[in-house]
Amino acid sequence: MRERSDPDATATDEELVSLVIAGQAEVFAALYDRFYSRVYRMAYGMTGQHQAAEDLVQDVFVRAYQKLKLFAGQSSFATWFYRLALNHCLNHCKSERKRMHLQTTGLEQLPSAVPAKQMEDRVLRKELQSEVHRALLSLKPRMRMIVILRDIEGLSYQEIADRMNCSMGTLAAQLKRARSLLARKLEHLDVRGTSR
User: CB 3.0-4.6 Å disulfide test: which of 15, 19, 134, 170 passes with 27?
Assistant: First the structure.
């Protein structure tokens, strides 16, 4: 599909949407290619599991395709799409919250010839990542999403406020609270010079 020599690569998101709505369903693949990685990172940040994130991403794209005719062009397609993805991820987390169990992942198989210091560093890094991820997963879904969009995805306050349909003041207050909660949950860690 990526080898096509059609205008999919240069067309705007909105032009691609128009083509899909006009009956060229195969053009949706270009939108999928453009938005997949960001939606996957968002879904993984919310679920903490690769397979669950992949399933959630597929659900988001199916939902977006089904609702494409509702895109009215009042905002950019990216804003519309991310708001849909964000809402779907939040709804998923709310419904799964009762059943969610925090899982710790085992260490990957390490070669037996790995020096002890290198192995210790890997173990500590893995434990640190696991602690940070558990702390992130313990936040309420909306707070978790804000942290992911700002601190992991690097979106601006305005972009996040648009996608979450809130004021920048509300967003700033929620982000401050989420970061404060994360800091409290992680204050016991000895990061051994690791910078955040």
Answer: 19
Closest CA to 133 of 123, 144, 122, 121: 144
pLDDT tens track, the chain, 196 positions: 444 445 567 889 999 999 999 999 999 999 999 999 999 998 988 888 889 899 999 999 999 999 999 998 888 999 999 989 988 888 887 776 655 443 333 444 444 444 566 666 666 666 766 777 788 888 888 888 898 888 888 889 998 998 888 999 999 999 999 999 888 888 876 544 444 4
What does the alpha-carbon distance between residue 104 and residue 102 come to, in Å, rounded to a whole number?
A: 7
Degrees, nearest 5: CA angle 27-28-32: 125
Return the percent helix, strand and coil in the chain, to nearest 5: 70, 0, 30
CATH number of 1-101, picked from 1.10.1740.10, 2.60.40.1930, 3.40.50.300, 1.10.3370.10: 1.10.1740.10
Domain spanning 108-196, CATH class: mainly alpha
Domain boundaries, the chain: 1-101, 108-196
